[in-house]
Amino acid sequence: MKDTTEILCKLRKLMKRPTGGQWTSLSAYIVPSDDAHQSEYICKHDERRAFISGFDGSAGTAVITADKALLWTDGRYYQQASNQLDQNWSLMKDGLPTTPSIGSWLAGNLPKESVVGVDPKLMSFRRWQPISKELVAADCSLLPVEENLIDTVWGADQPARTCNPIFTLDLKFAGATVAEKWKNVKCQMEEKKTQALVVCALDEVAWFLNLRGSDIDYNPVFFAYLIVTHDELMFFVSSTKLPSDFKDHLLTNGIEVNIYGYEEIGEQVAQLIKKREEKIWISPNSSYYLNSIIPKNKRHQEITPIALTKAIKNNVEVEGFINCHIRDGIALCQYFAWLESMILNKQHVSEISGAMKLEELRSKREHFMGPSFETISASGPNASIIHYKPTEETNRVISDKEIYLCDSGAQYKDGTTDVTRTWHFGDPTDWQKETYTRVLRGQLTLGATIFPRKVKGQVLDTMARKALWDIGLDYGHGTGHGVGHFLNVHEGPMYVGIRLMPDDPGLQENMMISNEPGYYQDGEFGIRIEDIVQIIPADPKYNFNGRGGLTFKTITMCPKQTKLIKKELLLKDEINLLNEYHRLVWDTLSPILKKEDDKLTLLWLERETQKI
C-alpha cells in the first residue's frame, strides 16, 4: 500500500496556484485513467491515476478536493482497490445503485461557483459532457486545464512516453490492403457528407495502416494519430519509429502517406476547418481537447467507420483466429497437464512460476508475439479478486487444497487469444462444485443461443447469469467483450453485459467476442470460465421474419474440468453441449499431440475430455 499523503499535499498546493491566468484556484481535480487516445491499457508514462492514488487497476477515476480524495472503480476492482488505497482515500463503488456519479458527487459537495479541473486530452468528449452538465446545473464549472498537474507533481521521476519501433503486418495476416480499407471509409464519409475523419484510437490507426507496435505492454499498438480525407492520409507519428520497409509497405498496400509530427494533430485539425466547409468526423470517445477544436456546426460526432469494420473480421482474420486458438489450446493443455503432474508429485509451483511456464509453452508456438495481457494466475482467495495480478507480496503456492483460476492470453501474428479455466487438483467442496456448475450452465447456455441479427449484446447477458440468479448469486463484470485481431484483447464497440453501450452496433457475423461468466466468494475462491466465440449464421425455422439469425461457435480449444461439476444440476441439453465441445477439443488437438509425441498431455487431454 502506497502512502499518498505527500503527493496529495503537493497536488493540493498546485490546485490553489494560478497558472497562466487560467484560474484562481481549483476546488477539485479529476484524474482519469486514460491517455490522450482514451486507451484502456496505458504505458508507464500515462499511469497518472495509479501514481496519485496507489491503485493500479485498468479502470478507475480519481477526484481530489481540498480535503477529500475519492476513487471510482467498477466491480472488477472493488477488492483490489480496497487493498491498495491508503487512509487518505475513499472507495466509490461504481455500478452500485447507492454510488453517485462523479458529476453528481461534485455538484452535491462543492460550493457554488467552484471550478473543477481536468486535462482535456485525458477525458473523452462523451465523459466530459455529463460531468459538465451536472456541474453547470449546480452553478459550478468544468475547466480544461492543459497543464497536467499530476505530471508537475511527478516531475523528473515520471517515465518517458514509450517510443518503440513500428513493424509492418504482412497481407497474409491482415487480409485486406490499406487501399481497400480507405475505399470503404471514403464511401461512408461520402454518405455522412464529411471531408475528413480524425482517428485517435491506437488500435484503429494500427489496423487501418496494417502496422503494429509495442508502445503499450501486451497491446501491439503505437502512439500515433491519423486523419483520413478523400485524397490524403495524414499520419501523425514520430518518424524515428517508422520501419525500414515502410516505403515497400506503402507500395504493397497501394497508398501514399504524408507524415506529420505526433504533436501536430491539434494544429492540423484546426487547419482543416479553415480549408473546407464540409464537416469533420470525430468519435465522441476521443478526447474533449480534439473534439472542442472543431466547432459544433462542423463536427460530425459518431464512432468511426473503422471501429465497426475492424470488429467484423475478414475471412483471412477469421482463419487466423481459428488457427491461433488451436495452437494456443495445445500450449494451454500442456500447461495444465504439467501443472497437475507437478502438484500431485508435491513439486513447488507458485502463481508467478506457473504463469512463466505458461508463457514459455506459448512462446514455442508459431507466430507467437507475447502475452495479450498480464496472466491472472490466482490460487485460493486470490482468485476472488477478479483482475488479480500476482506479485512477490501476494504470490501463493498452487496446491491441491484450493481452487486455481488461470485467465491468460497471447498475441499471435494471426490473432489474439483470451481464455480462462478454473481447476481444483484435490477435492472441491460441494459449494465450490455448485457455483462452478452454475457458472458453466450460464456459459453453455449463452454459447448455444440463437438470436436475431444485430441484437444488442445487453439483451443476451441475462442468459449467462440466470443459473446464478436463480439462487441469488451474480458476478461484477461483463459477460463478453470483443477481441482484436493481433490487437487489443478488449475491443469494442460491441459488448455483452448489464450496461447498455451507447455505440453497440448489434452483434454481427464474424465478430469475435468472449463468453465469460463467473462467481467470486470474497476472500475464499473465484470461478470464471471463458471462451472466445465467433458469431456465425444460424438457420432458425422462421428466421426472425427475414431479419436473419445468428449464433456462436466456440473457437477456444481447452477442456473444462468435469471434476468440479455437480452433474445433477445440469440439464440434458447442457450435458450434450459439454460432451460435444470436449469431443471437438479431442478431435482437434489429439492429432497434434500425437504428432509431437507429447504423451503426458495426450493422456491428460483424453481423461479431461471424457463424456459425462
Describe the structure.
With 612 residues, this protein is α+β, with helices and mostly antiparallel strands. The protein has three domains: 4-157, Creatinase/prolidase N-terminal domain (Creatine Amidinohydrolase, Chain A, domain 1); 167-310, Creatinase/prolidase N-terminal domain (Creatine Amidinohydrolase, Chain A, domain 1); 315-609, Creatinase/methionine aminopeptidase superfamily (Creatine Amidinohydrolase, Alpha-Beta Complex). The protein is 35% helix and 19% strand. The chain has 19 helices and 28 strands. The protein has a six-stranded mixed sheet. A six-stranded mixed sheet has the order 12-11-10-8-13-14, with helices on both faces. Strand 25 and strand 26 (525-528) form a beta hairpin. It is globular and about 70 Å long.
Helix/strand layout:
Layout: H1 5-16, E1 28-31, H2 48-53, E2 61-65, E3 69-73, H3 78-84, E4 90-93, H4 102-109, E5 115-118, H5 125-137, E6 141-144, H6 149-154, E7 167-168, H7 171-174, H8 178-191, E8 194-199, H9 202-209, E9 211-212, E10 225-229, E11 233-236, H10 246-252, E12 258-260, H11 265-275, E13 279-282, H12 288-293, E14 299-301, H13 305-311, H14 315-344, H15 351-363, E15 368-371, E16 376-379, E17 404-408, E18 410-412, E19 415-416, E20 419-423, H16 430-447, E21 451-452, H17 457-469, E22 480-482, E23 491-496, E24 512-515, E25 518-521, E26 525-528, E27 531-538, E28 549-554, H18 572-595, H19 599-608
Parallel strand pairs: 1-5, 3-4, 5-6, 8-13, 11-12, 13-14
Antiparallel strand pairs: 1-2, 2-3, 7-9, 8-10, 10-11, 15-18, 16-17, 17-20, 18-19, 21-28, 22-23, 24-27, 25-26, 27-28
